[in-house]
Design brief:
Layout: E1 8-11, E2 14-15, E3 21-25, E4 28-33, E5 40-48, E6 52-62, H1 88-107, E7 128-136, E8 141-145, H2 165-168, H3 171-179, E9 189-194, E10 199-204, H4 211-224, E11 227-231, E12 239-242, E13 250-253, E14 258-261, H5 272-286, E15 293-297, H6 305-310, E16 314-319, H7 322-334, E17 341-345, H8 352-357, E18 364-367, H9 375-380, E19 388-393, H10 396-409, E20 413-420, E21 430-436
Helix pairs in contact: 1-10
Length: 437
Amino acid sequence: MTASISTIPATIESLDHEGRGVAHVDGKVVFIEGALPRERVRYVPSRRKASFDVGHLHDIVRESTDRVAPGCKFFGLCGGCAMQHASLPLQIAAKQRVLEDNLARIGKVVPEQILPPIAGSAWGYRQRARLSVHYVMKKGGVLVGFREKKSSYVADMTSCEVLPPKVGYLITPLREMLTSLSCRERIPQIEVAIGESVTVLVLRVLEPLPAADQDKLRVFADTHAIQWWQQPKGPETAEPWYPLDSPELTYRLPDFALELKFRPTEFTQVNQGVNRLMVARAMHLLDPQPGETIADLFCGMGNFSLAIASRGANVIGMEGSAALAGRAQENASRNNLSFRCRFISADLYTDPAGAMQRLPRVTGMLIDPPRDGAIEVCKLIDETAVERIVYVSCNPATLARDAAVLVETKGYRLRAAGVVNMFPHTAHVESIAVFGQ
């Protein structure tokens, strides 16, 4: 006989920062993956802690009106998305709540204004991706895709709906072609980078390719109109392989008449549609004026710097990677903005004081740090000179922590904050905030 499953009823109140349903049962918090706010569900406990429990969704007794059919048949297996079962308005509202909760709980600050969310297309948006590659004999060949949910295994998938169709539906022919290679067991990943005029696939291959394998890769490139790059070691070793006459890899910011060049292994935003909206929002909040000098910290290849310069302000960009700082200077030249831009290679983490001392007096500042945030930089800001700060964040917890420094220590006001839905169907929260005197 099969033992009956013991389930527990719960009413879902909200979503947490991982997109899980949150309920209280007998006074204890329970996180239930796959459940949505206002749903009545039954769950099976999977992990019990002193302060919270985690449960598996067993069935839904009363369904939310925000529950939708997932747009990808591999949702639930693939770990790339966590929230396809939730309507897009609910996803955005949940991220806004995560941002506000972090600001209040960690930073002890409340924005004077909540900005309208920045959002774009929910499908086919991901123009950058790293696809895992693994040969599995039991599966009949090579698997190509994202990792399975909460697993190191590559998901057995044949398409992807968050990649643009021209790449999402390449997964099946990629699997077939890679399976036919003699080196199929020695290729761990493929990096995808989609530009304005070219789609690049970077083949991470650790040894020279046999001639027969090279022929198959060339045929694939010609058939599917892509360009292969090869990467034998670290990201800096990636080089174009075939065809060599492909257009340069670039993206555009049409509102500012800008086109930026990048390498496929260099950091760019994965969602260029939302990036355009985000840059426009940042410029509105920062309001750079002709003749002003603005600092762009963690400037990368100039995504915000060149937009600032296009408004007539002088820009000092600072970036820890010398290669990216060089790329930013190259992009300033190709857009005829070198006379307003200067880029400095300086590590704002290992020597923030030394880096900040290299900045001239600035009236405005844009900060776009990695997930670790910019707390040491915030402590060093000269609040008597810097009138306004726009902070672009990929981690609401570190934004909240840094906001506390700017508000409590430096005397700024958190004028406004809002979410940027850079990664639809995931629980990842990007945001933008503006601080003023």
